[in-house]
Design goal:
This protein is of the alpha+beta class and 314 residues long. The N terminus is likely disordered.
Length: 314
């Protein structure tokens, strides 16, 4: 009976020890596992960014139509709406009417000088007749001189008319050109009332709504090219000798339990060091200064989103 009691007491003492040993083993396993998971396997890491464009209004007035929704995929040159342009259109009509009035005042040179030309023809005939009579001693020298003088006066009158009419036409042409330039300016303002998407991409943010009054420079929406993203990663100075602009690299992204790789190309390497961003891991944690590297990645299937984390292997 005493022997059984001793065995029971010994087993009672061993049970807590075995439990402690088991717990220590579990803790050590978790620490090793976490260390293995935290090991930086790739050469650099960063977040995905896109080239963003903020499209602003180029005209002043009420936003009569604005067909934009966040998340829309827009093509380059796509028509999205317009700003009220009634006053500009009326101004254009007024200028066009004034230009027509100027054109109506333009003289017809051929009509204006036709009478003088007929007088010159008659004067030439009279001159020839008098000269023939003079040769036949039927006319005096004074009559010949008068006929020549009359012809020269008419020719001078014709030259003066042509010069005066040409000057008038040139002046009217300049006035008409002035109106044409003003019409072109109004047309440019009318064109700017139309909202045309400048680049292909996805609408990220919308800043204005229909019927709002806008002014030049007011942001309407933000668009980004989500098909061609770039990963902004950071490397330490020791890694600079291993990379160069235009170098092909591999980008890794974790999608839950699955990791996918994408081809990429280094498009830019910063020439200035900066402090390591808090959200970024580097291959050498002891380095405080890092260099930014932009890696261009094609996002044809749309799996990559702006702001996602990615790793890169050189």
């Amino acid at each position: 009976m005493k022997t059984l009691n001793k065995k029971f007491q010994l087993s009672s003492l061993l049970s807590p020890l075995s439990i402690v040993n088991c717990q220590l083993s579990i803790v050590l396993f978790l620490l090793v596992s976490s260390c293995n998971r935290g090991q930086f396997e790739q050469d650099a890491s960063g977040t995905f960014e896109a080239t963003e464009v903020i499209v602003s209004s180029e005209a002043s007035g009420k936003l009569e139509q604005f067909d934009v929704t966040e998340g829309d995929l827009l093509s380059q040159g796509q028509y999205l709406g317009y700003v009220d342009s009634t006053q500009l259109y009326l101004k254009k009509l007024q200028l066009q009417t004034a230009q027509k009035a100027v054109s109506a005042r333009r003289p017809n040179i051929a009509v204006q000088i036709s009478a003088t030309k007929e007088q010159i023809q008659k004067a030439e005939l009279e001159k020839n007749r008098v000269e023939k009579m003079f040769k036949a001693n039927a006319a005096t020298q004074k009559q010949v001189d008068d006929a020549n003088s009359q012809l020269q006066v008419l020719k001078g009158t014709l030259d003066a008319q042509i010069n005066s009419l040409s000057t008038s036409i040139n002046s009217l042409n300049e006035e008409s050109m002035s109106y044409e330039i003003q019409i072109a300016q109004i047309q440019d303002q009318l064109d700017k009332c139309r909202i045309i998407n400048p680049v292909e991409g996805t609408v990220l943010n919308k800043y204005a709504e229909n019927k709002e009054v806008v002014i030049p420079g007011k942001p309407l929406y933000k668009i980004a090219d989500t098909k061609n993203l770039f990963l902004r990663a950071y490397v330490v100075s020791e890694q600079l000798e291993k990379i160069k602009t235009g170098q092909d690299v591999t980008v890794y992204i974790n999608f839950g339990k699955e990791s996918k790789k994408f081809p990429g190309k280094i498009s830019r390497i910063s020439d200035k060091a900066e402090f390591t961003p808090k959200t970024i891991q580097t291959k050498d944690e002891r380095q405080n200064l890092v260099y930014a590297v932009k890696v261009a990645v094609e996002n044809a299937d749309g799996l990559i989103k702006i702001g996602m984390y990615g790793d890169v292997r050189f």
